[in-house]
TrEMBL record:
Major site of localization recorded for this protein: membrane
Location within or outside the cell: Membrane
Listed name of the protein: Calcium/sodium antiporter
Source taxon at top rank: Bacteria
Sodium/calcium exchanger membrane region domain span: 4-144, 168-311
Keyword annotations: Membrane, Transmembrane, Transmembrane helix
């Protein structure tokens, strides 16, 4: 019971901390007169991936590498199989051309690269992390140079310049909440794994990863109910790219990650590649450049079978 409580509390803190961090980071960038488009690409993306990043770094440092990996791989699967699926079941979304020119190819390339790095030696080494982070940097530069329109609307609306003391306050409280939340979440997850007699990987890939995808899901559902534009496919794919390149890249630079539970290599990474690939045909059939409820059902079915195969 208390493990579940730890997990829920940890998630609440992580989500709140992420929001505060986002708020202060955006306000700070505005004060530094950084162009909005750069803020949307870099600051907003980093801040929204902060919970995953903190959880993965802390898990790896605390000696639970499978939690770090499971969290990212599971998050990538959940973003598409759960968040995207539920969003398009509630209302179909149109897909931008940038999906098949940039977003999807980069996500597939990042996924394949990560799988190649980890599959053969069961380790993400420091130099591999450096490669991942450098690629992220190149990707951001490319987007800023050539894909300007694709990122303009990523800015939050309430971008009011805050007074400096508020920025510092929110940065501090956001950072603290993220740290405390990750602490609670990891303790709860590891405790839960040992209580249920499953490996850290299973909890990481189911409970923890769904937990860290909750903010995206909530944002999507609320947007659909308010008849606003739901979270874009670009956002979710961007989040997946960030998880692989930034979260795992930075984590493995800090401390190399070694796979403990072979299930990660024999099944999980292939599920991740599978669902990432699956998005492409779904976008084009039955109607071109749209995702509707049928596609959502296919994705959800994929996700449910993945979870079933993982825990059984």
């Amino acid at each position: 019971m208390e493990n579940l409580l730890f997990i829920v509390l940890g998630l609440v803190l992580l989500i709140a901390g992420g929001n505060w961090l986002l708020k202060s980071a955006v306000a700070l960038s505005l004060r530094l007169a950084i162009p909005k488009i750069v803020i949307g690409m870099t600051v907003v993306s980093f801040a929204t991936s902060a919970p995953e990043l903190i959880v993965s770094v802390k898990a790896a440092l605390d000696g639970f590498p499978d939690l770090a990996l499971g969290n990212v791989v599971g998050s990538n699967i959940a973003n598409l199989g759960l968040v995207l699926a539920i969003t398009v079941i509630m209302g179909s979304i149109d897909v931008r051309k940038s999906f098949y020119t940039t977003d999807w190819p980069v996500m597939m390339a990042a996924s394949l690269l990560f799988c190649g790095f980890i599959y053969f030696d069961g380790q993400l080494q420091q130099y591999e992390g450096i490669v991942l982070v450098s690629l992220l940097f190149l990707f951001l530069v490319y987007l800023l140079r050539f894909q300007k329109p694709a990122v303009v609307d990523e800015m939050p609306e309430d971008d009011v310049p805050l007074p400096l003391y508020k920025i510092v306050f929110f940065l501090g409280i956001g950072g603290t909440a993220l740290w405390g939340g990750s602490e609670l979440l990891i303790n709860g997850a590891v405790g839960m794994a040992s209580t249920l007699g499953v490996s850290d990987r299973v909890i990481g890939i189911t409970v923890v990863s769904v937990g860290t995808s909750v903010p995206e899901l909530a944002a999507s559902v609320i947007a659909v109910l308010k008849k606003e534009k739901a979270i874009s496919l670009g956002n979710l794919i961007g989040s997946n790219i960030f998880n692989l390149l930034a979260v795992l890249g930075i984590t493995s630079i800090i401390t190399p990650i070694t796979v403990m539970d072979q299930g990660l290599l024999s099944s999980d990474i292939f599920w991740m590649l599978g669902i990432s690939f699956l998005i492409l045909p779904l976008v084009f059939f039955p109607k071109g450049l749209r995702l509707g409820w049928r596609d959502g059902l296919v994705l959800l079915l994929f996700y449910v079978s993945f979870v079933y195969m993982t825990i059984k």
